[in-house]
Amino acid sequence: MLDDFFIRALLAGIGLALTTGPLGCFVIWRRMAYFGDTMAHSALLGVALSLLLHMNLTLSVFAVAAVVSLALLLLQKRGTLSTDALLGILSHATLATGLVIVSFMTWVRIDLVGFLFGDILAVTEADVSLVWGGGILVLLAIVYLWRPLIASTVNPELAAAEGLEPERARLAFMLLMAVVIAIAMKIVGILLITSLLIIPAATARRFSASPEIMAVIASLLGAVAVAGGLFGSLRFDTPSGPSIVVAALAIFLASLLPFGRRDHGAIANAHSGGDSR
Amino acid sequence: MLQTNAPDRSTLVSLSAAGLYRKGRWLVRGVDFSISRGEIVTLIGPNGSGKSTTAKMAIGVTRPDEGEVRRVAGLKVGYVPQKLSIDWTMPLTVDRLMTLTAPLRGREIDAALEATGIRHLARAEVQHLSGGEFQRALLARAIARKPDLLVLDEPVQGVDFAGEIALYDLIKTIRNSTGCGILLISHDLHVVMAETDTVICLNGHVCCRGTPEAVSRSPEYLRLFGARAGQTLAIYSHHHDHTHLADGRVLHADGSVTDHCHPDDGHHHDDGLPVGRAGPMRIVHTHGPDCGCGSDHSNPAAAGGDNAAEKRDA
Questions:
Q1: Which residue of A lies nearest to B59 if distances are taken between CA atoms?
Q2: pLDDT tens sequence across B173-224
């Protein structure tokens, strides 16, 4: 029943979900969901350029996503247009430019749907090792930068005053996003990458008492969603990328049901434990 | 108060002619002052006068566009920003907030929470705290790391009057026990912490500077604030030598009118009367009627007459 391609898909998907968990928490905390979308959409321009210039696909997607995020930083500093307008421009401009370039190259046939929605069942062993290798590097970088990232998310000026260089953390965060988008594209596709970042993290919020716990829970929930989505797609013969997102959504909806309410319990404890004054 | 000023204190931060230019205008310009170990400097001024901007330049959050800011190497800053909102999407307890920028030992956290009176809230989520409790949590965080320089941007906002006195007492205790320098931004134009060594009034530039006079010397304020407040709060009398007119020009004490302030305007280096210590208790304030500083101005017609004379008397 479980063929090799399915095992590979499972491994790649779970590896990706473990990486997107903590990164997705930052996307939520920093309110950068639309920013993540913009970087993901620019991946199609990366695909087009890689075909045009015969470059490595992953590298080319990473480079374009990184350039787009840096361009956004520069445009934000000039402060002429609001951030959401800039994001709207960059997001669709890069997607459309990518599509136009691809259409000019009549000599190549590309599986556009595969890029837009992912083709996790077609991942090779090389893809699996790329996901795990890249994922481990991203996770190590997040662990190393954890304190400056958290502090500058709470308040960049506070982080700067106390010597944590928020600009460096922000730049590192954007590059990590570009890496994850480059390795995630084949698995869930350009249009669905941000859902794997946001939905597990949003689900984890209710069950978390600290940022660290939220990051871990988001990773685990993402892995569960990947497994559930893949088995579902096998069982019901549905497209695998969207099935993973639907599984993540199902977990999110289930988490909204009123059970446990641990957050209220924590507050009650805090107020009853008045030992001083 | 001044006797506690030991002469051999080392300077932690000094600003000389520092200014910040943003979006076509100078937010502040020509700011000169320094903070030494064990010294308390209070910045006051109307909204938008550049108090927070000046504090941010002092601690290196923003770089000045002119002038110079010098900090001793390895200066450890504890900062309480004026505005800080923590998104509800981030789960953060008071305990976790303490180690936001650096790791701390458990008893250091406990001591800081104990000192600010919120130890019972250690496990509460910061989003559930009241304004006053959150302010105490931020102060606890800043002092827990034992900084060389404590920068408090309106630390008593949202705290009731009794709490304000308690927090000022705490700040005094911190200064006395750790010997750190403190840069305090006050939301009040006239009432400052009694332990303040230097009060600097900003309005885009240094309008005036001096030392506060104890509330306890003024029977009116003693009646208003009570004897306990008298040990903690002090009055700062303004001694400006110029007035910002409605059209942006500046009326100087000698009657001349210029388009801008001169860089050395308002710098009273305690010539003549010792500023703010021997003068009358009433508050002399000579901004223009629309300066937005919240002070009660006499009617504009009288501004050039009685008021000006009164000012010169002071």
A1: A161
A2: 889 988 999 999 987 777 788 788 888 888 888 887 878 775 555 566 566 5
Name the nearest CA neighbour of B286 among B259, B264, B253, B262. B253
Q: Report the top-level CATH class of A4-254.
A: mainly alpha
User: Looking at the DSSP assignment, which residues form a beta bridge with residue B42?
Assistant: B184, B199
The whole-chain average pLDDT of chain B stands at 76
Residue B20 backbone phi and psi in degrees, to 5? -130, 125
Which CATH fold would you assign to the domain B9-76+149-163+175-313?
Answer: Rossmann fold (3.40.50)
Q: For chain A, which residues make up each domain, given as ranges?
A: 4-254
Contact residues on chain B for A263, CB-CB shorter than 8 A? 125
pLDDT in tens, A161-171: 999 989 899 89
How buried is residue A55: exposed, middle or buried, by Cβ count under 10 Å (0-12/13-18/19+)?
A: middle
Interface TM-score (ipTM) > 0.85:
no
- Chain centroid to Cα A13, Å, comes to 12
pLDDT of residue B259: 65
Separation of alpha carbons A160 and A157, rounded Å = 5
Chain A hits for B162, CB-CB cut-off 8 Å, are: none
Q: How far is A212 from chain B (nearest CA, A)?
A: 9
| B119: nearest CA partner in chain A | A276
Q: Do B120 and A271 touch (CB under 8 A)?
A: yes
